[in-house]
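Trying the structure run again after the queue cleared.
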Amino acid sequence: MTKPWVRISLISFLILFLELLVIRLVSTEIRIFAYLANLVLLATFVGSGLGMLTRKKLPLSITAVSLTLLTLALVTQTIVRLPTLEFRLFSGITELLAPLSEAYIWFQVDTVSRLGIIIGTMLTVLIFGLIMVVFMPLGQFLGLTLNQARQPLLAYSVNIAASLAGMWAFYLWSDLGLSPFLGLVTAQVLLIALITDRIVRLYGVAALLASLVLLAPRSAHQPQEKPVTFWSPYQKLTLSLIQDKNPHRAQGWYLEVNNVGYMGLLDLSAYAVEQRLPAIKAWLKDKKRLADLPFINQYDLPYQFKPEAKDILIIGGGAGNDAAAAVRANIASVDLVEIDPQIVAIGRKYHVESPYDQPNVTVSVNDGRAFLETTRRTYDVVVMGLADSHALSSSLTNVQLDNYLYTLEALRQVRAVLKPDGILLLSFEVTRPWIGARLQQTITQAFGYPPAIFEVRSDGAFGWGGIVFVNGKDTQTVAKILQQQPALTDFMSRHAKDYAPAAITSLTDNWPYIYLDQPRLPLLHLVIAGVIIISLWWLTGRLLVSSKRDMNWSFFWLGAGFMIYEFQNISKSSLIFGNTWMTNLFIITGVLSLILAANLAVVKKWIGLKWGIGLLLTSLGVQLLIPTAWFNTLNGLTKAVAAIGWLNLPHFFSGVVFAHLFAGHKNKAVALGSNLLGSAIGGFLEILSFLWGMQSLIYVAILLYALGTRRYLIKR
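Done. Tokens:
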């Protein structure tokens, strides 16, 4: 393979395709990486950047072997037993580090172990380093190939276009439901195609065979025999039969998301409940709660409040339990929103009551926030189900799938789609008092008065239950309902909750972090980032050549500014177009397309360097003038063009500045490597949004871009 354009295309495609695969897999199999603000993404940037800057020859066989070792780390279930500690190697990192975090991490342990924190930190850095090593030879290969190109901007444009193809290939792979583990094997095959040395290729083939051996036990089974795994565009889903022999508990299917419990597909039909009724009554009698029986099915509760309801909206419908309850209640029209298409598909195929096949149920595979923005209907009841997420929605944003569903702005939209006597029932698994206080306060601010709050638990008889927040569009709606239903009022009184919000930060689109106790820089993030940055500082000094390959700080700061602006840009875009994988795909496609357009503008000499710098800083500043919500007042193509054009305008001008500097730099590998390392630092700085909110990242981006361009602004 001698043609440089072919080499640039294949290596660029492979880097981005593999980058997204690794992000998906590591964040799924080792959940702590889904909470650590894009740490896997930053490891890929650091690896690629260091590869371009290192003085040592790095054969591509290092990538092949490192991928096999990474696969081994992800699939191993080895249990480590120490005198005071027991954990699963690598997959247990989450439990080891969870006590260090002020943010709530699902299924975290409650005991703090200093030894566990130290081991967890070491294992996290080890995984980070392994990912970094995967990408170092790839980065070096790309840098050397770019240096050989006679037309640098054309070569860079080929790099961007091929990266774009790699991203689309990954999302097509995800949309087809193919396993990322199979994607790693495919990446190793592409890697072998890049290797020209026969001995190095043999190492690559050996690594590929080793990976196949590691993955061989992961063959598919029928759900009736063993758990079966599905890969959605968002997450890993594992379906198995519920095998609980306790007679009062509901039967059906159990669905895990990213290896932790998420939901059940429960048979709560009248016949099934009647069969279990004696056991349910015996359990309630034992708990001295027999009077609770009519109200402990959280899925039926909305129709206890509104038996005459005709139009229902369910946000976060999951695999169908809420819809099945609406069908049992003979609701005339049920609109249901679920963001994950694979969960909907599982519900269609496996839910025993087949709610998604009923003519009165309309399913929208969409982000709940986006649906609220576009619907023209009003509803008697809005049901917000248990939308608690365990994973990130994107490799380029730290906002979880459900964060924007519970902000002040979102709940005001919910109130807007209610009929005059409509009510909201919001269920949530409140695992910390401050989470309940934050929801209580935000709902109060959105509706103008506090919600009624009570707890529903049935020990699995009707699901997991949770804390229910009820509020009406009118101040008297809920009170009037309860006046007519003394038994329901009595139940709510016995199980009432009041989190007495005081000095708690409300959820807003600017600060949507529902699982963080207060605005702060989380200790977990600071510890991990500090250890990694110190390690990289030490490592960089030993890898870089003192004169020819010193860091270029202009490119470094440009990369940092680009990345931190891109983080908040994707978050803002999700508020306009929905927090879906499709939104992320098209937004990043738009960004890369604008970079290609910027390259053309430089080649054609349409925009000079100083003009590009001035317009870049100006376009960043004016982002502060137009609120994101304004774009939702537009419709259709006008909205798409205005929002995408406005939000991504700084990317075009940053592309112009980068292209000018890249074309004039003698060593393209140093320029791009410095830029990638800067992007990693920009990624670390993104945690500042935990402290000051999303909008603050624009100010940080302006500062970073100013640092990167100051010498060219003052240069005559």
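Residues 631 and 642 are 7 Å apart (CA to CA). Worth checking whether this holds up in the mutant runs.
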